[in-house]
Amino acid sequence: MAGHGAQEHPHGADRLCEAGDRVYSRAVRRGRVPRHDADPVPCLLELALLHPDPDDMDWLVPTSPQEVMTRLLRGVYDEVSDSQRRMGSAVAAFEWYAALGPQPSPASGTDPAAPGSAIRVLEGDSRIQGALDEATQACTTEVLTVQPGGIRPEHELTEGLHRAMALRGRGVRMRDLYTHVARHGQGLLNYLELMGDSVEARTLDEVIDRLILFDRTVAFIPANADRTLALELRHPGLVHYLVTVFERLWRLAIPLTASLPDTGIEGISHREQSIAALLAEGHQDAVIAERLGISVRTCRAHIARLSETLGAASRTQLGVRIAQVGLDRSRASSSEAAVIRVAGVPGLPGAHGVPGQESATGR
User: How do beta strands 199-204 and 173-179 pair?
Assistant: First the structure.
């Protein structure tokens, strides 16, 4: 059956075939479907979207849409994280090889930081702001940005408003990605209202480090943790790679004008579901707070609320409850693994985010 399905249904759960869409939708609406209904669409069983009803093997019951969505998101997050690591290695290697080449002499009059360079290291706020001003003035079509962190401070939004208005005046389209927390910032809502249809914003639980792309030809990314260095990238391969990362995140993100999806568990918010999943992965409170763009205090308040809602008296018990109700997002992880991670056993690996360079565009 696996081979048959792979030949006739070469797709994943992110894009079902027409027949699979019909049968799965019917199963969700009715709660189950007869097994023979799934004979023409073996992909639904292969993708674990349908599975046998333990009470009656002649029927199939659907995996909940919420569970399918979290499974898809986790796969993309893992892919993007891996892509970020590979991109960092590629940039480091590029710089190393570039340093081996002949260096221009002062007499030659060639500036190693000329605008045409594939990679420029920008040091200091004035240098970074100047490079962003130049790229803004040259932009004619599109600006893509990723803005990590939480609610955008008013001074950031005001600081770059003149650039955004200049872009709007030239008909440049802008797309911005934020974390879900940014939805609660009135300054951002005011900014988007002012910019009108020229800006479209979407949000995710987590985003990658800060990124600004102009016309898909030049990109700016942070180069250190204290926000004093940035990289200006004009190498077509690197820029194309960053555009691909952005587009994949954009496809998964939720428009700012739309509500966040319901968790399907009474008393647990979307943010608490995200915190539960990161706890199950073994991350500490400070790391979770940074990745979701909230304060450590707020993060711990949500964890306390999770414990109360799930009836957990300790972190160990919270891990059990998270696994039992499926908030760990990972269907492959056992309950015991989630318990160990949430309990904070020393030696378990944890991902540490690196703060990004603040955006001079102010969005």
Answer: parallel
Handedness of CA 309, 310, 314, 319 (dihedral sign): negative
Are the CB atoms for 280 and 322 separated by under 8 Å?
A: yes
β-pair partners for 232: 120, 220
Alpha-carbon dihedral sign for residues 322, 327, 333, 338:
negative
The answer, yes or no, to whether residue 260 has pLDDT greater than 60, is yes
pTM of the model: 0.54
- Note the maximum CA span of the chain: 84
- Determine the Cα–Cα distance for residues 307 and 313; give it in Å rounded to an integer: 7
C-alpha 116/C-alpha 120 separation (Å) is 9
Query: What is the rounded CA–CA span in Å between residue 272 and residue 328?
Result: 11
Written as six digits, the tokens of 162 are 């003149």
3-state secondary structure of 55: coil
Question: What is the predicted pLDDT for the residue at 327?
Answer: 75
Instruction: With cut-offs at 50, 70 and 90, classify the pLDDT of residue 294.
Output: confident
| Both tokens assigned to 346 | 């020393």
d(C-alpha 111, C-alpha 120), whole Å: 11
Rounded to whole angstroms, how far apart are CA atoms 314 and 343?
Answer: 8
Whether residue 10 has pLDDT greater than 80:
no
Ramachandran assignment for 362, one of left (phi > 0), alpha (psi -120 to 50 degrees), beta (any other)? left
More confidently predicted of 26 and 91:
26
Q: Are 204 and 177 in contact (CB under 8 A)?
A: yes
Kind of pairing, strands 199-204 and 254-255? Answer: antiparallel
Rounded to whole angstroms, the Cα distance separating 270 from 166 reads 36
The pLDDT tens digits of the residues spanning 150-193 come to 676 666 666 667 788 889 889 999 999 988 888 877 777 888 88
